[in-house]
Structure formats: C-alpha cells, structure tokens
Amino acid sequence: MINIIFLLLIFFMLTGTIQSQKVPKVNNPSSIFASEVDPYKKNIIKITITKYGRFFINNEEKSLPLLMNELSKKKEKKIFLNIDKESTIKDLNKLINILKKENFKNIFIRTIDSNDK
Fold first, then answer.
1. How is residue 28 annotated by DSSP?
2. pLDDT band at 1 (very low <50, low <70, confident <90, very high)
3. Following DSSP, what letter does each residue of 61-83 receive, concatenated?
4. pLDDT tens for each residue of 13-48
5. Contact 87, 51 (CB under 8 A)
6. Lowest-confidence region among 14-23, 45-54, 60-69, 86-95
C-alpha cells in the first residue's frame, strides 16, 4: 500500500509543472534626486513597463485593457513604477492616462542613483 502511495507521489511530482513567476528585467534610468520607497509593502501596487512595451502588475503580465480593469478594482492608491529607460514615452503616457483616470495620486518611479555610477 505504501509503495503505491510513493509511486503516485513520484508520478505527480514528475508530471506536474511548477509555475514560476515571470520577473521582467528592467534597466532603470538614473536620477540625481532620490528618496527610498519600499516597493514590497502590501499597500503599494508595482507596475513594470519593459523596453518592449510589455506591462506587468505585481509581476504578472497584463494587456493594457486588463491592466486598466485590474487597477479599477484596487483600493490602494499608491503606485510604484518600474520603467525601463529604453521604453517609449508613448507607453508611459498610456499608463499615466490610466492612472489619472482611476484617480491615483501617489506615484513613485524607480531610478538608479546617478552618484553611484
């Protein structure tokens, strides 16, 4: 009986897939002025724009309409933007317009301290 349980356990371990989170690689722009914000606090929504114009909300890729729908459900109104320096202003403008429409006022943009270079 125990052998069957172990065989089933091994079978499910080998055939199951593990879902890994897609964390996009982003090359942040530099800035002279900076203040620290912890993007991992529970009340902050993390949005990423890659250089290819892909949008992520809390490390889950979303199309722009789905992103807008998801943001309309959020009660937290603090946004942490992680934007690739090679992304287009057009993509950033689309996102800013959505954030304005949904009445987000606290928006933080992640940068690299240019003094560290």
1. P
2. confident
3. EE-HHHHHHHHHH----EEEEEE
4. 777 766 555 667 776 666 666 666 665 666 788 899
5. yes
6. 14-23
**Distance between first and last Cα of the chain:** 63
Where exactly are the structural domains of the chain? 22-116
Distances, alpha carbon 52 to alpha carbons 35, 70, 113, in Å: 27, 21, 24
Residue listed under structure tokens 């009986």 = 1
- How far apart (Å, rounded) are the C-alpha atoms in residues 110 and 14? 40
Residue type, 27: N
Query: Could you tell me if 46 and 57 are in contact, meaning their C-beta atoms sit under 8 angstroms apart?
Result: yes
Q: Which two tokens stand for residue 100?
A: 């304005």
Q: In degrees, to the nearest 5, what angle opens at C-alpha 87 toward C-alphas 86 and 92?
A: 145
Predicted structure pTM score: 0.68
